[in-house]
Amino acid sequence: MTARVTYPSGAAATQAVPSAEMPETMPPALFQPIRLRSLELANRIVVSPMCQYSAVDGSATDWHFIHLNTLALSGAGLVLVEATAVDPVGRITPPCLGLYSDANERALERVVGAVRRYSSAALGIQLGHAGRKASSREPWNGGSLILPQDGGWQPVAPSAVPQAPDEPPPRALARDELPGVVEAFATAARRADRLGFDAIELHGAHGYLMHEFLSPIANRRDDEYGGSLENRMRFPLEVFEAVRAAWPREKPLGVRLSCSDWVDGGWDIEQTVVLARALAARGCDWIDCSSGGVSPQQKIPLKPGYQVPFAERIRREARIPTIAIGLITDPHHAEEIVASGSADMVALARGMLYDPRWGWHAAAALGGTVTAPKQYWRAVPRDVAQSFAGTRIGQR
């Protein structure tokens, strides 16, 4: 049996309720739909945003075409495009994706168009600003800071506090610069709407600019944007409000948060719940529950599902849909998370790269169904043929 759950934001979901009398035809919780404003996702599987470090001046390349069209055929209900910078200074690396110019917009248009032609998955984009973690080398080149004289730029941040002790400090943003950064987010949201994206996620995690304002580890300001929790929340909430106003009312808008810095005296789950309530009151449609990234001193207890308790607590105490992420690779584990009410959706990143048909295989393992492209209908093994919806094959 199921129960319908409605959140203050208007999101609605059918949540599985364990019962000995549950009919065998009831789809697994992972493969039940969820509605976020006017957007209905076919299932609870999300492709997490994953940086590819393969753009040119912020513009998508053939690699993005290959990458996103591959993942759009994964069986996931929602595919989120990687962290996309709202201005050039906000790129994590020089070859990071951006949506701050007409050229960026044109390059993404080609990619989005192809996804739309061949995939029924909803398509979202994550918008962000790297803050003091900008101007970095790609991970395969060490990930270190690139100095201006070596082809990088000076990062900006809430305060002149470096990410690592051996780095030069970023430039602290002046009070009168903040409205321009907020507007850059809103402008990128309008570009995303023109491109036809179904959803936006704001990147407020992993030590990037919005997270830097939240965390006392990175935020040492003495004005109305620093100090108290209310003050540290001010800039992220201003960004959210500006994007919500620029983004169509009927389209969902979520936020990824680091729910803990995993450092004593840093940002924690209690503060995250307060922020989640404030976001929900302003029309946020989900919280994507991650953690860490603001300090090299973090001590993260890595294990499958280690961030699920964050998603469960925020869902329960802030009454907002949540996405669980973090080393979730087993379909049965993902099913348990959703069926138990610990989270409304489950997102995979590296697991999707390793198995780009993860959604297909989860449907086969759990008895769910996915929509696969007709060109691939003959691929499904006969013993799990029911996992592909609506297939019909004929041949002379």
Report what the structure shows.
By secondary structure, the chain is an alpha/beta fold. It has helices at 62-71, 102-118, 178-195, 209-214, 229-246, 269-281, 308-318, 331-339, 350-354, 358-366, and strands at residues 2-6, 12-16, 34-36, 39-41, 45-47, 78-85, 122-128, 156-157, 171-172, 199-204, 253-258, 286-290, 322-324, 345-348. The strands form three sheets. It has an eight-stranded parallel barrel with strand order 5-6-7-10-11-12-13-14, surrounded by five helices. A four-stranded antiparallel sheet has the order 1-2-3-4, with no helix packed on it. The chain has a two-stranded parallel sheet with strand order 8-9. α3 (178-195) runs parallel beside α5, α5 (229-246) packs parallel to α6 and α6 (269-281) crosses α7 (308-318). It is globular and about 70 Å long.
* Structural class by helix and strand composition: alpha/beta
Average pLDDT score: 95
Largest sheet: 8 strands, parallel, barrel
Number of strands: 14
Report the span from N to C terminus: 44 Å
Number of helices: 10
Shape: globular
Note the quaternary state here.
single chain
Portion in helices: 25-40%
Radius of gyration: 21 Å
Helix and strand run: EEEEEHEHEEEHEHHEHEHEHEHH
Strand order within the widest beta sheet: 5-6-7-10-11-12-13-14
- Note poorly predicted spans: 16-22
Residue fraction in strands: 15-25%
